[in-house]
Amino acid sequence: MAHVDGNVLAGPLSEIFSADMTTAMGRCAGCGDVSPLAMAMVYLKPNAFVARCHLCDTMLLTLIQASDTNRLDLSGLAALSIPR
Amino acid sequence: MTGVWKTGVVASVHRQTETARSLEIDVAGWPGNLAGQHLDLRLTAPDGYTATRSYSIASSGAGARVQLAVDRLPDGEVSPYLVDDVMVGDQLELRGPLGGWFIWKPEQPEPVQLIAGGSGVVPLVAMIRAHHAAKSAAEFRLLYSVRTPQDAIFADELASLDKEAPNLTITWVYTRETPAGWPTAAGRVTRETLANATIPVAQNPTVFVCGPTGFVESVADNLVDIGHQAARVKTERFGGK
Fold it and tell me: Is B34 helix (H, G, I), strand (E, B) or coil?
């Protein structure tokens, strides 16, 4: 299946954050682009989401859904601006 | 909280096309939703295996009833069940409303260009209905690409709104087979289609594009190529080949 986009992260990230994270602005640690997470390219794996920068393909975040844990790797995001 | 799983009960089902059905679902505790939002739907097999998919909502506003329209994917895990098996009274597990980016609010005054590929029309139908219900003065145009006339979801409602609503215009693009006597041959949405049949760049429209990933990316690239600012083009991809 082709990739989708950051809109799909709204539900999974709602388990972790109280704000809507698709409108959060993320700064790519690779190229410095600042965009809403909704615009990221998201690759769906079994029980995992991999979001990449829509401009430079840097891996912005990875969410792995284990049975009792959400493991979130944000190392590709230099900053996140989250709506209050 | 939107992230909490809720139970919905199927209130009605309606065949839309050979491969698509719309479903109305009553969801206890649903807080209402904005036009363009989606929900996650989770199926659980007897052995505990779960499959979760996102579906755009065709309805908006207050109230605890939501409408979806689902197209069957040949190798899908969830869509065949929703299109072929679910019956009125069945329970479904849902969470939402979800997403605050791909949305339209009635207070937005600027012109809006909607571009749909196939069942990507669903969140755009929510926007068209909200625009009509609010008697919005904003210009709305929909460019709707379908394979054949029989593949259009919400076709009758869209055709009557196209006639009835003064500031809504719908342009149909048929990629495989046109209606009899159609002035143009079947073909994909091209740069020229977009340049000729969408709101001009000079009017600075907000553009919403939803459909299969390949469709969305081709359309979005061409929109930027004809002069739209990338930031004014909002996209929602649902995968596919």
Answer: coil
Given its phi and psi angles, is residue B118 left (phi above 0), alpha (psi -120 to 50 degrees) or beta?
A: left
User: Complex ipTM above 0.90?
Assistant: yes
Say if the Cβ atoms of B40 and A11 lie within 8 Å: yes
Give A-chain residues touching B96 at CB under 8 angstroms.
Answer: 11
- Cβ distance A14 to B2 less than 8 Å, yes or no, reads yes
Alpha-carbon span B123 to B59, nearest angstrom: 8
pLDDT digits (tens, 9 = 90+) for A55-76: 999 999 999 999 899 999 999 9
Closest by CA to A26, choosing from A66, A65, A56, is A56
Cβ atoms within 10 Å of B221's Cβ, excluding its own: 12
CA-nearest residue of chain A to B235?
A: A39
Q: With an 8 Å Cβ cutoff, are A14 and B212 in contact?
A: no
Q: Find the CB nearest B239 among A2, A10, A23.
A: A2
Coil/strand/helix, residue A71: strand
**Residue B59: partners with Cβ closer than 8 Å, 6 or more residues away:** B33, B65, B66, B67, B126, B129
* Model pTM score: 0.97
* Token pair listed for A6: 């950051």
Distance CA B233, CA A21 (A): 19
